Amino acid sequence: MAKSNLLIVYHSQSGRNLRLAYAAARCAEAAGASVRLLRASEAGSRDVIWAEALLLVFPENFGQLPGALKDFLDRSFYSACARELILPYAAYLCTGNDGEGAVRALQRIAKGMVLKPVTEAIICKGPPQAEDFAALEELAEAMVAGLEMGIY
């Protein structure tokens, strides 16, 4: 059986989201997926085309998506639309605020880009604790399982 392709794109300045994204990648690989773990500024259209699902890990900046994540989505938009890609995705935010502004912005972009949410965004408020890592690891494993079962 071929491995499922999971693209994990993250943005991190403090290192919080970086550590979370690496934890998610380890769990997804352990669950049997091929994983591309990329900083938002490094990810692009080729990665989106390769992916069968997308996991976004990022903070909320000033009540919105971080610029680097928005830039990644902008750069990927036209090639995804041209290929009529419908990618399942999930979002995990680690933020000091409520995360709602960033989630709304992502939902608007996802709708236009034809990204299909597999679950509601998970929001970690403040520094991530063990249970926050566990929640993201569970999400990564569930995404891999869903791909393998053909749910998405």
Task: Outline the structure in words.
- By secondary structure, this protein is an alpha/beta fold.
- It has one domain (5-149): Rossmann fold (3-Layer(aba) Sandwich).
- The chain has helices at residues 16-30, 45-50, 67-82, 100-113, 130-149; strands at residues 5-10, 34-39, 53-58, 87-95, 115-117, 122-125.
- Strands 1, 2, 3, 4, 5 and 6 form a six-stranded parallel β-sheet that branches.
- The chain is globular.
- The mean pLDDT is 92.
Helical run tally: 5
**Structural domains: how many:** 1
Portion in beta strands: 15-25%
Order of helices and strands: EHEHEHEHEEH
Average pLDDT reading: 92
Instruction: Give the overall form.
Output: globular
Classification by helices and strands: alpha/beta
| CATH architecture label name | 3-Layer(aba) Sandwich
For the terminal residues, how far apart are their CA atoms?
17 Å
Helix content: 40-55%
Q: Tell me the radius of gyration.
A: 14 Å
The named CATH superfamily: Flavodoxin domain
Short characterization:
This protein is an alpha/beta fold and 152 residues long. The chain has helices at 16-30, 45-50, 67-82, 100-113, 130-149; strands spanning 5-10, 34-39, 53-58, 87-95, 115-117, 122-125.
